[in-house]
Amino acid sequence: MPYKAPVRDYQFLFNDVFKIEQYSNLKGFEEASPDLIAAILEEGARFTEEVVAPLNGPGDKEGCVLHPDHTVTAPKGYKEAYQQMVEAGWPALGGDPKYGGQGLPHVVSTAYSEMLTGASSAFAMYPGLTDGAVAALTAGGTDELRDLYLPKLISGEWSGTMNLTEPHCGTDLGLLRSKAVPDADGTYKITGQKIWISAGEHDFTSNICHLVLARIEGGPAGVKGISLFLVPKFIPDVDGNTGERNSLQCAGLEHKMGIHGNSTCVMVYEDAKGWLLGNAHEGLKIMFYMMNNARLGVGLQGLAIGHASHVAAVEFAKDRLQGRALTGPKSPDKPADSILVHPDVRRMLLESRALLEGGRAFLTWVSLQADLAKGSEDEATREKASDYMGLLTPVIKAFLTEKGLKVTQDSMQVHGGSGFTEHFPASQYMRDIRITLIYEGTNGVQALDLVGRKLPSKGGRSVMTFFGEIDAYVAEHEAGKVPAFVKGLKETKAKLMDGTMWLMQNGMGNPDAAAAGSLDYLHIFGLTSLAYMWAMMAEQAQAAIDAGSTDPYYATKLKVGRVFLDRILPEADAHLQRMKAGAEDLFALEDEEF
Ligand SMILES: Cc1cc2nc3c(=O)[nH]c(=O)nc-3n(C[C@H](O)[C@H](O)[C@H](O)COP(=O)(O)OP(=O)(O)OC[C@H]3O[C@@H](n4cnc5c(N)ncnc54)[C@H](O)[C@@H]3O)c2cc1C
Q1: Distance between Cα 519 and ligand 1 center (Å)
Q2: Cβ-based neighbours of 404, under 8 Å, separated by 6 or more
Q3: Ligand 1 contact via 198 beta carbon (within 6 Å)
């Protein structure tokens, strides 16, 4: 079943909704002319649809192979496609020009990343983790390290990984045992075992740069004693030639439910040479640059896999003939009507589409905030955008993956029994998407981050600014072109406000109650964010129609938006009611009663 990249949606978001031409005075945007962006979208779609997507199914079946010499080969075709991608310059799209990157806006590279991930999430993880390594190295590397590593990482010639997890230490990083011993030459000897390291070993880059969390001997216990190290597979000379093999290896590959084309490695470090990034004992601060990047990337995975599964479900529904329309046959010349005539099938497809289109707008808008935080000349704009990034990262990660799972599940359901067989791609999408709710901090932990850290941070400044922006939008547009959308936004935002007040009143005195309701609260946050996006999209679609456009895209957009208002937004009521249940019922059982 072919993958189809969402090119038209991105054109609409870039040109009509967010009008990114208005930012042409920002760094990176000056090069991003509408023509160049159109070419990137078209060419990105071609590359991902024609080169990467065909590897997705076979890669799932073949998986990665660990050899006796501890090397790993990725599925057939991955290496060649990766090389093609590097030669075409795709990994360098958003990279810093100082290090050979093309310096294009993040919002543009995000669109390409969605296409790559939708085509094959397992494949896309290899360059995706490298992006995170670039972020951490940029934040914590010395000039010397940056000059040596960043050009090769940005081009994709080398790849990167992130090494946090150990067998006894997942969410609770304070427990980690990997140790670092200072060496006479200023480097460190790293020893320890890391598990589930994505892209930890493979056969398509000449070096792999591991970013490893470890505790410097004698350092404080807990998270305050964790440092971050750059530990390359091959130690480069000053010119960047890969030299001596470092003492680390892949000791095993995980057998797992999905993303089979991505190598999930047990990594063993034995006195491996590592370079400290940032200050000693402050590694988490630097690692957060990588983790925030990765969290947005995982939210994107939820959206991208959801989209790919939806495309397959639509194709299937058009072809599958079963039963008759309740109102009489739609195709009397055929033995049965297509399943598209059934309201429940239409519900699943359209709810999916409403979530995907809203989610894509949300991801694009947040990516734009990343560009503003970095490149705006106005300090207040930079500060606001940076506040939004902090506030919304857990929402993007958890909400888009939860909704991506719903979309993928409904897409499988549309397939009926065929979806459960391996003959159709629905089952692979279902297996591939499930991890997105777990890694990069489980969604439960994202919700705690939102409620416990992001809401109160800076005295609540970020959240209050966000609420203020929505209130201002509502006030300006209530009597405008699309009142139903603005009303939906206003009412959902009121529920979010209600939930926020409830947390303020109950959270301090009863942290279990706040934590018990945190994921429901995050969902209301996500629904409000999507309502905001849908209001802006509907407004622009209506404006295009009013201006005489005959492009059917705009009228369709409004019809899909109505599904969002009618069928997705009412979920906010249930979430609010659930969060207000507190934690009493959850703690009514004694542990022995479980
Ligand atoms: C395929 C795959 C790829 C991965 N890739 C990488 C990688 O590249 N690099 C890397 O370092 N790691 C990687 N991981 C590890 C991943 O990030 C962890 O699995 C994840 O952070 C959760 O940790 P855990 O599995 O140990 O779960 P645990 O921490 O044991 O959590 C178990 C359950 O308890 C809940 N829980 C735990 N603590 C709390 C708390 N304080 N409050 C509320 N609930 C809590 C969790 O939400 C979860 O539901 C990968 C994992 C997988 C499966």
Answers
A1: 16
A2: 301, 302, 303, 304, 305, 306, 359, 433, 436
A3: yes
Residues 152 and 123: beta-carbon distance below 8 Å: no
Give the nearest ligand 1 atom to 254 CA: 1
CA of 443 to the centre of ligand 1 (A): 10
Has residue 197 got a pLDDT over 60? yes
> Which residues sit opposite 266 in a β-bridge?
252
What burial letters (b/e) apply to 444-462, b meaning 16+ CB within 10 Å?
bbbbbbbbbebbbeeeeeb
Give me the percent of the chain exceeding a pLDDT of 90: 95
Residue with tokens 């006796």: 68
pLDDT tens, residue by residue, 124-169: 999 999 999 999 999 999 999 999 999 999 999 999 999 999 999 9
- For residues 527 and 289, what is the distance between their CA atoms, to the nearest angstrom? 26
- The band of 292, judged by pLDDT with boundaries at 50, 70 and 90, is confident
Distance CA 533, CA 362 (A): 6
**From 440, 539, 590, 593, the catalytic residue:** 440
Q: Which two tokens stand for residue 124?
A: 């896309």
What is the pLDDT confidence band of residue 1, given thresholds at 50, 70 and 90?
A: low
User: Which two three-digit tokens encode residue 77?
Assistant: 């075709």
Return the structure tokens found at 492: 């959902």
196 lines ligand 1 (CB under 6 A): yes
pLDDT at 146: 98
Task: Please check whether residue 467 is in contact with residue 493, taking contact to mean a CB–CB distance below 8 angstroms.
Answer: yes
pLDDT classification of 539: cutoffs 50, 70, 90: very high
Three-state secondary structure of 66-131: ECCCCCEECCCCHHHHHHHHHHCCHHHCCCCHHHCCCCCCHHHHHHHHHHHHHHCHHHHHHHHHHH
Q: What is the pLDDT of residues 45-65, one digit of tens each?
A: 999 999 999 999 999 999 999
In 3-state terms the chain splits into helix, strand, coil percentages (rounded to 5) of 60, 10, 25
Average pLDDT, the chain: 96
Q: How many whole angstroms separate alpha carbon 454 and alpha carbon 168?
A: 27
For 266, phi then psi, to 5°, come to -85, 120
Residue owning tokens 């849908």:
534
Whole-number pLDDT of residue 291:
86
Identify the CA nearest to 491 among candidates 451, 464, 531.
531
The whole-angstrom separation of Cα 304 and Cα 263 is: 20
Tell me how far the alpha carbon of residue 77 is from its chain's centroid: 25
Please name the residue that has the structure tokens 């063993």: 268
Separation of alpha carbons 134 and 126, rounded Å: 13
Q: 164 C-alpha vs ligand 1 centroid, how far in Å? A: 10
Concerning whether 440 is annotated as a catalytic residue, the answer is: yes
Which of 223, 166, 215, 164 shows the shortest CA–CA distance to 190?
215
Nearest ligand 1 atom, CA 441: 21
Atom 19, ligand 1: which residue's CA is nearest?
A: 439
pLDDT (0 to 100) of residue 459: 94
**Each residue's pLDDT tens digit, 477-520:** 999 999 999 999 999 999 999 999 999 999 889 999 999 999 99
Q: Check pLDDT > 90 for residue 287.
A: no
Other C-beta atoms lying within 10 Å of the C-beta of residue 17: 20
